[in-house]
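Box 3.1 A note on notation
Throughout this textbook, protein chains are presented in two layers. The first layer is the amino acid sequence; the second is a token string describing backbone geometry. Keep the layers aligned when reading.
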Amino acid sequence: MAVKIRLARRGRKKQAIYDVVVADARAPRDGRFIEKLGSYNPNSNPAFISIDEERAFKWVMDGAQPTDTARAILSYRGVMYKKHLQVGVNKGAITQEDADKKFEAWMNEKEAKVQGKVDSLAKAKDAENKTKLEAEAKVNAARAEEIAKKRLAIDEAEAAAKAEAEAEAAPAEEAATPAEEAPAVEAAAPVEEAPAAEATPEAPVEEKKEEAPAAEAPAAEEAKKEDKAAE
């Protein structure tokens, strides 16, 4: 039975993560597997890899054939380099002690590189965030200054409108004050004087009516005397 070390997909759409599994070569990609060795998440930077190196090394030494992606993952974790050293030990090219020292030195160097990459990415991200914050601060400052100018213009316009309204209202109040007082004085005078003016001419009229018969009496008597003389 041919055995392969390969990836089995899982996770959400466009957010796939993979299991590193040992499976029969005839089994489907996401089908049954013999053993799970770890997981691989390519969505992070650097990519997250978790592998059981001892079990992976055992399967590789037993003849399991990794796929290209699985081989790259195992190389990243040092499994393939350890196999290379172990083959040299089995052939007698180097001792086991030398192989272990070489592998340990390689792992230390690899971890230093990985840590250096993580630190550089963190610094780059911090610098990017700082640049974004400075740009946002400038934009906010410009926006605040523009808002302050608009508010100042609005306040000045309101103050000018208020002053203009007060200036227009002042002459109107001054003109309204004498117009209200004048009718009161004019109305008071004719109310008191009208009865006195009408009472004065009534006395002579009554006297004339009473004196008229006295003046007419002698004229009538003279007319009667003239009639008798004519007879």
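Residues 66 and 122 are 33 Å apart (CA to CA). The longest helix spans residues 96-199.
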